[in-house]
Design a protein that fits this description.
alpha/beta; 8-stranded parallel beta barrel; 12 helices; binds phosphoenolpyruvate
């Protein structure tokens, strides 16, 4: 089955609840009818509940930026997948900011991916090499290792329906774009690894996105890719006009 392209906006730690309401209103007004693209907004945790009501009967769905790996218990300050499951469809797992700033290990990321899947949500597992790793020629080995670790608690059937976002750390928020051909090569390498480990159906089904400095000016080249299934957008998703233009590049692309 051909899956729709995905355009995911990661709002990170921006927008108060009233600001996110305004941003959603603007998005709803300017998106119009989008049929071929699945549009996901990942606001902060506080914004998720009001946003879920604002998005009823729209073509936008919600994602969370993170989740705790255990369902409940004495884990002060964390957010449970059980609570999120009422409101979101997707959860970002292992974003490089979580890995680098909050020391999330491959082990924890694998647990998070598993708990998300167990509750019927779709993890968007983020992977990517740092600049040092790229300069040392280690991009492929680093990213493949991250993917292998993150998938380690999932079955082939479950992997068929997850999302992986290849986000080179050096490209995030830096304005330094990865070449489309390099992102495509990484996506193909990941599919080959998944095929070897989990079979052809899993390799074909998994959606692989690119993320890192995507904006309205460069989105077209990613939209035209036959290998990539969409994009994960940080900074440009905060500007509703830029985000809508990115979505429209994917919508207008011929299949
Ligand atoms: C991100 O944070 O996932 C991201 C891709 O950010 P940006 O688009 O700002 O590089």
């Amino acid at each position: 089955m051909l899956k729709n392209k995905l355009v995911v906006g990661n709002w990170k730690v921006h927008f108060t609840v009233p600001e996110s309401t305004v941003a959603i209103e603007k998005l709803k007004k300017s998106l119009g009818t989008v049929k071929k693209v699945e549009i996901v907004i990942c606001p902060g945790f506080l914004d998720i509940y009001p946003a879920s009501a604002e998005l009823i009967d729209t073509n936008l769905v919600l994602g969370a930026q993170n989740v705790f790996q255990k369902e409940e218990g004495a884990y002060t300050g964390e957010v449970s997948v059980v609570a999120l499951a009422h409101f979101v469809k997707y959860v970002l797992v292992g974003h490089s900011e979580r890995r680098l700033l909050f020391s999330e290990s491959d082990r924890v990321i694998a647990q998070k991916a598993a708990v998300v899947v167990a509750h019927g949500l779709t993890p968007i597992i983020c992977v990517g090499e740092t600049l040092h790793e790229k300069e040392d020629g280690l991009s492929k080995i680093v990213v493949v290792n991250q993917v292998e670790a993150a998938l380690s608690h999932l079955t082939a059937l479950e992997i068929e329906n997850i999302v992986i976002a290849y986000e080179p750390v050096w490209a995030i928020g830096s304005g330094q774009l990865c070449q489309v051909s390099d992102a495509e090569k990484m996506a193909q390498d990941l599919r080959n690894v998944i095929k070897a480990l989990y079979g052809e159906k899993a390799a074909k089904g998994v959606r692989i996105l690119y993320g890192g400095s995507v904006d309205q000016k460069n989105a077209k080249s990613f939209a035209q890719s036959k290998t990539l299934d969409g994009v994960l957008v940080g900074g440009a998703s905060l500007d509703h006009k830029a985000f809508v233009e990115i979505v429209k590049e994917f919508e207008s692309k011929k299949k």
